Automatic annotation (TrEMBL):
The keyword Nucleotide-binding applies. Gene3D superfamilies: Domain 2, N(10)-formyltetrahydrofolate synthetase, P-loop containing nucleotide triphosphate hydrolases. SUPFAM superfamilies: P-loop containing nucleoside triphosphate hydrolases (SSF52540). It holds the Pfam family FTHFS. It comes from the Eukaryota. This is formate--tetrahydrofolate ligase. It comes from Aphanomyces astaci (Crayfish plague agent). Pathway: One-carbon metabolism; tetrahydrofolate interconversion. GO terms for molecular function: ATP binding; formate-tetrahydrofolate ligase activity.
């Protein structure tokens, strides 16, 4: 977020869209001159604060999960961005017909606000290697949505694990910023590493669901013991990873990532060559209904037994 100014651009676009919707609703009401005057001129004393409706007071709770941000992530170019924005449904008319951004006439303005934010965000380390993202949710959206839309697919997935994280998942006390680490993080605790590896095993299974080889990089801290590092590596391979290596690249730079690079190469070489390596096994097809898609993602990725929809949700999906 923000490297291309996208957080401010999406904020401005969202505010403009909200204002346009509010204006459209206001002007289509049957209002008397008195009501109109009271709307424009506060009947309160000049020192009083402005009066806002509950809808005006509500704010966007999670900008990165908004539809505009999703469109920004999927659009291929400016014309595609404009097309997708124009089709956004923002409400329903009195006749219960969908109202789109095109209908309220702000498609061009929203596209203009996002024209720079559509540029790719390229991140890399000081040694030129690309940065990644969290596997817990990011990998599912990346493979199911982004790869499907772009036609691209990964040849290998690298999961980064640390002994500290495995211990936390294994039941160790929470790490609090600014406070000293609890003792279990700085002493050897193979039991916590083993328990926490259950979460790592689930992440490996999630990645393998897309039929892409998985390599685990165990990034060590100075207080990790050799036994803890080896246990994490062994358990990762037992969970289905193509390979798992100790990768001290944080401390040693590129030299510390050589073994990891070799492991990635080997995993890709062992991958069956179907003649088209861009073929990716997604969790659902485009023609599946929303209920089946939700069940496929929730049960495969997040360990749910099923997804239950309320009657109101089912009515909206019909």
């Amino acid at each position: 977020m923000h490297l291309t100014g996208d957080i401010h651009a999406v904020s401005a676009a969202t505010n403009l869209l909200a204002a346009a919707i509010d204006a459209r609703m206001f002007h289509e009401r049957n209002l008397t001159d008195t009501t109109l005057y009271q709307r424009l001129v506060s009947s309160k004393a000049p020192s009083s604060s402005a009066q806002f409706t509950p809808a005006m007071r509500r704010r966007l709770a999670k900008l990165v999960a908004s539809e505009l941000m999703a469109i920004l992530a999927l659009a291929n170019d400016l014309p595609d961005l404009k097309y997708r924005i124009g089709r956004m449904v923002v409400g329903f008319s009195h006749a219960d017909d969908p109202v789109t951004v095109d209908d309220i006439g702000v498609t061009g303005a929203l596209t203009a606000l996002l024209r720079d934010a559509i540029e790719p965000t390229l991140m890399q380390t000081l040694e030129g290697t690309p940065a990644g993202f969290g596997a817990d949710m990011g990998i599912e959206k990346f493979c199911n949505i982004k790869c499907r839309a772009s036609g691209l697919a990964p040849d290998c997935i690298v999961l980064v694990a640390t002994i500290r994280a495995l211990k936390l998942h294994g039941g160790a006390a929470s790490v609090v910023a600014g406070k000293q680490l609890p003792l279990e993080y700085t002493t050897e605790r193979l039991d916590l590493v083993e328990m926490g590896s259950l979460n790592l095993a689930k992440q490996i299974a999630n990645a393998r669901a897309f039929h892409v080889p998985v390599v685990v990089a165990v990034s060590p801290f100075s207080h990790d013991s050799a036994a803890e590092l080896e246990l994490a590596r062994t358990l990762a391979i037992a969970a289905g990873a193509s390979d798992a290596v100790i990768a001290p690249y944080y401390a040693q730079g590129g030299a510390g990532a050589v073994d990891l690079a070799i492991a990635v190469q080997r995993a890709m070489q062992r991958r069956p060559d179907s003649g088209d390596r861009s073929e990716l096994a997604t969790l659902y097809t485009n023609d599946m209904c929303v209920v089946d898609k939700a069940n496929a993602v929730a049960t495969t990725m997040y360990g749910a037994s099923a997804v239950e929809f309320e009657d109101s949700a089912n009515a909206d999906l019909i």
